Structure formats: C-alpha cells, structure tokens
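ok trying again, last paste got cut off:
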Amino acid sequence: MKVTHQISTYTAKGEPIHVFRITNPSGAYVELTNWGARWVTAMVPDRNGQLANVLVGYDDLDSYLTDPYYMGAVVGRFANRISGASFTLDRITYRLEPNDGRNTNHGGFSGFHQKLWQWEVLPTGVRFSLLSPHNEGGYPGNIRITVDYTWNDNNELTIHYGATTDRATYLNLTNHAYFNLSGTSQKITGHKLFIPTEWMLDTTPEFIPTGDIIDISGTIFDFTSPKPIGQDLYADHPQIRWNKGYNHCYVLKKAASPDMKCAARLSDSNTGRQLTVETDLPAVLVYTAGYYKYPDTGVCLETQYFPDTPSHPHFPSCLLQPGEEYNNQTIYRFNSKVSPSDS
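nice, full thing came through this time. structure:
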C-alpha cells in the first residue's frame, strides 16, 4: 500500500491543509484531507477496469473550506438533529447551538467538519485526531477523538471512530460522503438500493424523531428488495415532500451491539460498480441530496446512532462515560459486476 501526502491549500490562519492519497496495488485509491477529516475521492474501477471518482465533491480543496453540505466530512459531535438544541444529563441542561431552526444539526456551528484535524500516516491509511474542549458547541466534556481511514487490496475503506471523555456526554459520529457510482454528475435515480431492514424512524416535518419505530414493509420506503432510487423518489407523500426525497433513518438494530451488519448495498447497472456498506452502528440514514445545489445527484449512507437519541431513552444509547471508549467502525466495499444484469 502506498500512502502519500502534500499540502494543497491553507486555512485563513495560514495553517497547511493536506491531501492524503492511499493507493493499492491495482491502482485504485482514496483521498482524504485533514480539513474536517474528510473523504474526498474514491477512484474505483467499473466492469471494464476504468477508474472514476464515485464521490460527489469539489474540483479543488479550497471549495471545501466554505462547503455547506458536509461533503465527505466526519460529522460531530452529534450526527443529525437534537430537538430544541438541548438535552438534560445528570440533572444539568446543556444548551446547544440552534443551527437548524430551533434544533441543532450535525454538531451546530462548532461542528467537526470545520475543524483542522491533526494527522498521522499509518501503514495502510491515515489517522486523524481532534480535541473537542468542554462546552464546545454547548456539549459537556473534553473529548479526544480519533478517526482511522484504512484502504486495502480489495477496494475496501474502513473508517474506525474512537473517542474518550473526562465527563459524561453524548457522541454520535458519521461520515457524510455523497456517492454516485456512475462517476459522473448525472442523477442517481437509476442506481439500485438495498437496505436490509423493514424498520424506520418516524419523524416530524422538522426531521425530528417522534420516538416511534415504524414498519415500512411494502411502502415507498421499503428497500428490502433492491429497487431504483428514483422509483418512488418523487412520490406524493408528506415524508418525501418534507425531505425533498429520502432523508430517513433506517433501523439496523434496536439495541447497541458490536456485531457487524450490512447497512446498504448500492449498484449502478451502467458501470457495474457496486458499493456494500457494513457497520456495527445501529442505523443508517439515507439522504438523496434533496437540499444539495444539484439535487438527487448523490446519495449519502450515513451509519450512525439514531437522531435525537438524548430525547428518547428507548433508543440505543450513545452516552459516553469517563473510562469508557467510543469504538465503532464502518466498511465501504467497492466491486464491479461483469454483466449489467448482475447489478
């Protein structure tokens, strides 16, 4: 495995921002940057062996400095929303940053996607690390976070999230990559998606969970049999209208556990490319980029704990205590099918 890096641009304070490239023996590679611990490139082959970048993003790293869409970023402290931008823990109410109406989303204005992370080159990847101080964004605890990206000979990218804290706090990390397996900017309506669960979180028009886990068997939200994303993407349904497409949390587990499960499988019949996502996290949020400036040209598969977990004691807990370690991982496996019918 070959790991290279170079300075690509600088922050407003003059701090260097690096781009890291991890290349396997076949020539397939991923690129990362310490700005937001982002995954910015995935050059993987189609059925003919032709490499193309299957991540939606920008042509230059400077554009990521003002990116409002969390492109490829590590999101934290809390992925997705917390209602009322507050939670109560040990009888103390913590006021967070309301950056989504009255709610907080993706860590608020102090989110990790806008941080310059420390870095260390590993034999097959890169480790990013960050100290989030007590009360940053309103969250309690000094948290030390590490995010390891490793790439292997089988075109698998593993992201491992680790963290410790000096006081009780909630932590929910994810990666916000947008995938388009065509390697172009065309819509992903023809991509087929498989999600192996019949359960989803019910939400309000503010995208806040009601607390109900609903059975979606046979509905437009059911992907237990692979179907084109566009099949029901423009359906006349309130949840689709609110979200401008899919922006829904699919329940993989109703209780936290360390076992790995398939979260999703995405395929493009035109190129033969396929992406399988496996995780030990309890949910995957499917977002078809309805609020992106080019809607429906990418799909996010955000493995995570449930949104608004602090408000719902029956959700799998992401409460991190002193002396414990946050320890989760997600694997993104790319391959290609020889025949279009195999996709």
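cool. The chain is about 0% helix and 40% strand. The chain has a mean pLDDT of 96.
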